[in-house]
Amino acid sequence: MITGEMRLPTLALMLSAMGCAEPQVTEANRPQYTRPLVTDQLPFFLERGVLREQQSHNDWCLRRTWPHSDEFAVCDPHPYLNRSTPPMVTIVRYNAADRAMAYAVFTPVPCRMYGRCDSRVDTDNIWERDLVDHDHGLRGGLLFIGESAQHHHEELPSMQQRMVDALTVELDKRFGAPVWRDPHQYGSAWSTATADVGLFVVGNGAWVVETHELRGNGPPGLAQ
After folding, report:
1. Where are the domains of the chain?
2. Does the pTM of the predicted model rise above 0.70?
3. DSSP string, the chain
């Protein structure tokens, strides 16, 4: 997904624009911008200390931390025009040598400029706690967790759909067609030679999470 490498003003403008109007996204008007991914500036195997320095330099504040995971949130508590929209969150998991093995980037579905925050998807969907063990940090097998989520087969609300459409463009461009996609686009998965990539609507629809995980690298000392 996006982290310090996609500057917040750019993302804020995109989210704010999404909160103003509701045109139906089609192949003809699908966003064509290019965005970096978390692994562009925070590559796999990056040392924990270096990663923390880079996040701090890009205005991400260290929030929760575990023996093998760190959570960063955008330091500005109100980075978007609608102050009800929360800042982005990035959670990193490290191996026993403190090298980055997995990322989960939580992007808020933007609240409407002068109205509500849309969050009304089914309660069987994946939640933050499914991805994050609050005692140990980011779990292993992120793609499996996302693909295993159950839904009531209802269409995504408009704001969630537009966020998924916007974030999918770059993933399709880089990795080609997904190897799995939920029929109602609650989640999609891509596969590279070494890593699994996922994009999932989380919980009640307030967040879309993008995951990047080296294959076969679960939390140190913990079952995936």
Report:
1. 8-214
2. yes
3. --STTS-HHHHHHHHHHHHH--PPP-TTT--------HHHHS-TT-BHHHHHHHHHHTTEEEEEEETTEEEEEESSS--SSSTTSPPPEEEEEE-TTSBEEEEEEEEEPPPPTTSPPP----TTS--HHHHEETTTEEPS-HHHHHHH------PPPHHHHHHHHHHHHHHHHHH-S-SEE-TTSSEEEEE-SSEEEEEEEETTTTEEEEEEEETT---TTS--
User: How does pLDDT run along the chain (224 residues), one tens digit per residue?
Assistant: 444 444 444 554 455 455 444 445 455 555 555 889 999 999 999 999 999 999 999 999 999 999 999 999 999 988 777 777 889 999 999 999 999 999 999 999 887 766 666 666 765 778 889 999 999 999 999 999 999 887 767 788 888 899 999 999 999 999 999 999 998 889 999 999 999 999 999 888 889 999 999 998 788 865 44
